[in-house]
Structures are given as structure tokens and as C-alpha cells.
Design a protein that fits this description.
Blueprint lengths: L4 H25 L11 H23 L7 H16 L4 E5 L2 E5 L1 H31 L5 H4 L2 H9 L5 H15 L5 H16 L1 H11 L8
Antiparallel strand pairs: 1-2
Helix pairs in contact: 1-2, 1-3, 2-3, 4-8, 6-9, 7-8, 8-9
Length: 215
């Protein structure tokens, strides 16, 4: 770098791209309460780690004297290339009943798992309380088709894959054999994670008595 402000800007750009990718990855995993992520140290450790890898990728390009256009282009290549390498796998290894990537992908999965556990512990209590408020009086038998369908319609950007995964989770709850109210609460948890608190609340309010048990 040698004090060159242009080179410094390139490293900032590469790191910024890595941070953006890491943040987007976590935000997509916690769509129900994304704001809570910003208060968790695990979130910042993960995204800063991604940024550091992107900056190191640019450093490696400079050290190996690999040229790919101007400095900005190299920073972009390093930013996205570093993220691709970090998530790559040289092979797949079967461990128990799971297929795990053998390579840098194993590292990122381990980090994601650690971050998930930390964030989930903090969010679980809040989710339980909120679902209890929203889903009180809701009948699973009356709601398990109408409520998910209404949430999907409210979610303008919900993909077909999202809808398919949601349907599979709802089917599992339906087959669980729990009493109606417990299944309704479990449905609420699934929909809260899928659509978020505000969408779920609005959907329950809109459908009203049509999905609730008789007084």
C-alpha cells in the first residue's frame, strides 16, 4: 500500500463488499426480526470476518502481482472472489446423516452455526412471547391453510421455493398430533420467522373470527 490513498480506498472497497455479503447473508436468515441483529456481537464478528477475508484476497492479488484491470476492478474481484473462496468446497464428506463441505465452506458453515446459536438464544424468548400474543384463540384447524396463504399474498417478494418450504413446515405441524392450540402456536412461530411480526399480526387481524375458536 505504501501510504497510497488510492490503494487504501481499494482495500476499503474490497472489505466493504465482504461486509455487505456477510450482512446480507445473516439478514436473509433472520427476516422476522432483522433489527435485533444489530445489537449482537456475533453479527459484527461474522460480517467483519467476511470483510477481513475480502481485504486479504486483495492483498494476495497484490503480493502475487496479479493484475485485473484498475484498482477498483481488482477490489471488486477480490471482494466477491474472497467470498466465493470462503464458501467453496473441494469435496463433500458424509458425517452421520449430514453432508458437509470439505474446504473453506466448512469454516463458513461452522461460523454460521455459531452465530445462529447465539442469535437464536436471544430471539427465542421474544418470539415465544410475541407468538403467544398474536396467536391466542387462533384455531390451527381453521388457520393452517388460510393464514399461511394470506401471509404469502402479503409478502410481495416471497418466492415459490419459500412457499414450498413453508408448506412443508406447516404439513409437519399438522401431522405432529399435538392439541389444536399448541399446533396453532407452532404455526405462529413458523409464520413469524417467514413473514415477520407485523405481517403475521396484520394477517391474524384481517382473518379475525374466521380462524379463531368460538368464544
Amino acid at each position: 500500500m505504501n501510504g497510497d490513498p488510492t490503494a487504501l480506498q481499494d482495500y476499503v472497497l474490497a472489505a466493504g463488499l465482504g461486509i455487505t455479503v456477510g450482512a446480507a447473508e445473516l439478514l436473509s436468515r433472520y427476516r422476522d426480526t432483522p433489527r435485533r441483529l444489530f445489537g449482537r456481537i456475533a453479527f459484527y464478528l461474522y460480517v467483519m470476518g467476511n470483510g477481513a477475508v475480502a481485504a486479504l484476497a486483495l492483498l494476495a492479488l497484490h503480493a502475487l502481482h496479479i493484475t485485473a484491470g484498475n484498482g477498483t476492478t481488482q477490489a471488486i474481484v477480490a471482494g466477491f472472489g474472497g467470498m466465493a473462496i470462503l464458501r467453496s468446497a473441494f469435496a463433500t464428506v458424509r458425517v452421520g446423516d449430514r453432508d458437509l463441505p470439505a474446504g473453506f465452506g466448512l469454516v463458513i458453515q461452522g461460523l454460521l452455526g455459531a452465530v445462529d446459536r447465539v442469535i437464536d438464544r436471544h430471539q427465542a424468548t421474544g418470539r415465544s412471547a410475541k407468538v403467544g400474543e398474536i396467536m391466542v384463540g387462533v384455531s390451527f384447524v381453521k388457520a393452517y391453510e388460510a393464514l399461511p396463504a394470506h401471509c404469502i399474498l402479503l409478502m410481495a417478494n416471497a418466492s415459490d421455493e419459500d412457499a414450498k418450504n413453508l408448506a412443508a413446515e406447516v404439513a409437519d405441524i399438522a401431522a405432529s398430533g399435538y392439541v389444536d392450540q399448541i399446533r396453532a402456536y407452532n404455526l405462529g412461530v413458523v409464520l413469524l420467522k417467514f413473514a415477520g411480526q407485523d405481517v403475521l399480526q396484520n394477517a391474524v387481524n384481517t382473518l379475525g373470527a374466521d380462524i379463531k375458536t368460538a368464544p
